[in-house]
Design a protein that fits this description.
By secondary structure, the protein is of the alpha+beta class. It has one domain (2-145). It is built from 6 helices and 6 strands. Strands 1, 2, 5 and 6 form a 4-stranded mixed beta sheet that branches. A two-stranded antiparallel sheet has the order 3-4. It is globular and about 45 Å long. Bound molecules: iron/sulfur cluster (2 copies).
């Protein structure tokens, strides 16, 4: 149970990666209303996101294709206010407990889907199939106000 014994800073690269619950919620496009400063989540996923597998199609080289993909790290996790409340990195950084459906607790990578905590259980669509002007039609909820 390394996530209980170590801080995010103390985790090895493999431990850090294994903390991800593979929900895909950080791969949906977020919209920023520049007037109200509200941030909205959408059901549109990044062009590199594989909707069948619920994972990035080229995780190791993703920055080459998606310049604004954000690499999570112990130093920026607390600044990324738009991350979902269920995000394992956010939970651990705030001293919380992983959900029962997290694979490190359940022992299965399927539980995030079986409990409908992944984006692919919510009718997402790739940004490649959405026109820029139509993103607002895919808003699912307001996340935060900056
Ligand atoms: S929201 Fe957090 S736990 Fe879910 S895929 Fe993104 S980094 Fe991983
Ligand atoms: S590049 Fe990959 S990890 Fe980054 S947002 Fe897109 S699908 Fe997610």
């Amino acid at each position: 149970m390394f996530w209980k014994e170590k801080t995010l800073n103390e985790m090895s690269p493999d431990e850090w990666e294994s903390l991800c619950d593979r929900c895909g919620k950080c791969c949906t496009l977020k919209l920023h209303d520049e007037i109200s400063d509200d941030i909205y989540d959408t059901s549109v996923v990044c062009k590199l996101f594989n909707i069948k597998k619920c994972e990035c199609n080229d995780y190791n080289n993703r920055m080459k294709y998606v310049k604004d993909c954000i690499k999570l790290s112990p130093s920026n996790i607390n600044e990324l206010e738009w991350l979902p409340e269920t995000c394992a990195y956010k939970i651990i950084s705030e001293g919380g407990e992983l959900f029962d459906w997290h694979h490190l607790i359940s022992g299965s990578y399927d539980s995030v889907h079986e409990t409908k905590n992944s984006v692919i259980t919510n009718n997402v669509v790739s940004e490649e199939n959405v026109k820029d002007d139509d993103y607002e039609d895919y808003i699912t909820k307001k996340i935060i106000k900056l």
